[in-house]
Amino acid sequence: MDSKGALMPPEPDTRTTPYESPIIILSIGPEDENPVLFYVHKEKLIHLPFFEAAIREDTFIEGQQGKISFEEEDPMLFRRVVEFIYEGDCFPRQKLLPAASFGFEVPLKVKSTASDSKEEDYVPSLAVEMASGTYFAIAETHQLFTMVTKLLCVADRYIIEDLVEMTFQKLKHFPIGIKELAVLAQHVIRSIPETRGDIHKFLADQVYLHLPRLSNCPEFTSLLESEMSILGRGLVRLITDASLSAQGRYFNKVLDNDAKVVVCITNTTVDGCRDRYGSDDNYEIKFGAAMAGEVLLSDGTVDSRNILLAQHVLNGPRQAFPASSFKLLVGASFTARIS
């Protein structure tokens, strides 16, 4: 009230709401190829560390121009990022099913390898069948898994922590067969830092679950074929990571003693060796068997018949294997945990 008792009008609210703040343009794709533009309120971006730094006017030219360019990113993935920024969720959204389990707004479909099988909704109880190869994800579900995996990498790259956690949790509810594992391995090892141990452990668990069938997946086998490959080294590091497996702890001890190791890249059997090289009856060292992804001890020496000698365990008997089925990995490049 004023001195005469009249009511005073309320003070105007000068605070800016998120939808009244300036617009920042996110340009996705090469500038010379008609990039896709997303118009996002500044107030929605400044709570995310990467974007807050990018639009700081006194630091980066992006902040002065009100535009941030992402020339190498996928517009479809950034559509999901913007969707998350505004809604706190993005496609495919999860929903609670009647049986108190989680599903998605679009059904995840799988099929049995039986010739007369029909598409089925995926349920977690089919995880073992997916790993064994008796079930597989249909093309649309595989594509959706690939999209969510790539979105996880984008969220990590731009430090959108809530989106990282959300996409990671969604991935855990997908059917994962050998082709999905190849996608997961490729993107996680290439894009996700090892400091995100939960994601790398999830990948390692999937690798172990699928080990018996890895040699049947050309996409996955190719990741192991070069000891110079970042992906190949990353996969072997997963297989032998001391924090993830008993095998990892064992090989960590082995490599501390300056031993050398080889990784099997294609399945090899005793009968296959005999068919290729003849009987081993007259040799002291016998043929052995190994599965793709298995790690053995060997100095990498190959004889004139292209045979490699290796051991399954430290101080165990040496066996003979086709050298073409293995790749030598010296200790220094074998695992980041070796000092």
What do these coordinates show?
The chain has 339 residues and is an alpha+beta fold. The chain has helices at 42-45, 49-54, 61-65, 75-87, 127-132, 139-157, 161-171, 178-191, 197-210, 218-224, 230-240, 246-256, 270-277, 331-334; strands at residues 23-28, 36-41, 67-70, 94-96, 102-104, 109-112, 120-121, 135-137, 261-264, 295-297, 307-310, 319-322, 326-329. The relative contact order is 0.07. It is built from 14 helices and 13 strands. The strands form 5 sheets. A 3-stranded mixed β-sheet has the order 2-1-3. Helices cover 39% and strands 15% of the residues. The protein is elongated. Helix 8 (178-191) runs antiparallel to helix 9.
List the helices and strands and how they pair.
Layout: E1 23-28, E2 36-41, H1 42-45, H2 49-54, H3 61-65, E3 67-70, H4 75-87, E4 94-96, E5 102-104, E6 109-112, E7 120-121, H5 127-132, E8 135-137, H6 139-157, H7 161-171, H8 178-191, H9 197-210, H10 218-224, H11 230-240, H12 246-256, E9 261-264, H13 270-277, E10 295-297, E11 307-310, E12 319-322, E13 326-329, H14 331-334
Helix pairs in contact: 4-6, 6-7, 6-8, 8-9, 8-11
Brief overview:
The protein has 339 residues and is of the alpha+beta class. Helix content is 39%, strand content 15%. The strands form 5 sheets. It has a 3-stranded mixed β-sheet. A 3-stranded antiparallel β-sheet has the order 7-6-8. A 3-stranded antiparallel β-sheet has the order 10-9-13.
Please tag this protein with its features:
alpha+beta; three-stranded antiparallel beta sheet; 14 helices; 13 strands
